Model the fold of this input.
Amino acid sequence: QSVLTQPPSVSAAPGQNVAISCSGGNSNIGTNDVSWYQQLPGTAPKLLISDNNKRPSGIPDRFSGSKSGASATLAVTGLQTGDEADYYCGTWDSSLSAVVFGGGTKLTVL
Amino acid sequence: QVHLQESGPAQLKSSETLSLTCRVSGTSIYSSNYYWGWVRQAPGRGLEYIASISYAGKTYYSPSLKSRVSISVDASKSQFSLRLASVTAADAAVYFCARLRYTHTVLMDWGQGALVTVSS
Done:
């Protein structure tokens, strides 16, 4: 059971928009910045969003992040078939003194 | 460009000790801005943090694995290592090494992963 809670799956048609939620508590998201990772099938995770809403170089602006209280959201606009992947949120948990992740959300582009 | 490469035995038997090494290139391991860590992913499952270490040797461990895990760094060789004792089938996974920001809120770069299987 993951410390952070994500929906197991989301889906939408190409060109549409989706949002993936990540819910935590005061000791993790409520206190620390959130990152999001994209894992394409058979590959290592890749940093998608850091510091709640910052995109590393090379990440399209179709991907955006936000945080409010103890929850965070990853938004993807203008879906493309290449966006089909698993998405994970992660942060530091100050009580556990450990990195914590969500269980992952599988994005399907119909 | 930062590159991390895992290496180590791919097959273990139950009760043996898993040993993996991550070689770092493209950046200096001697930086107080970063930690170096391990994350694993069991087949069909999500990401699980294992441990992290600074170049100076300060460590953090997952509470659920702490009793069996040891992480170490050899900065002179630009590499860090993981040891997991008394493995069982539940430890079979892909093990990723990663570069973390010192705050541990960002895993900036990842290795390609090393698949470890455990037989009884």
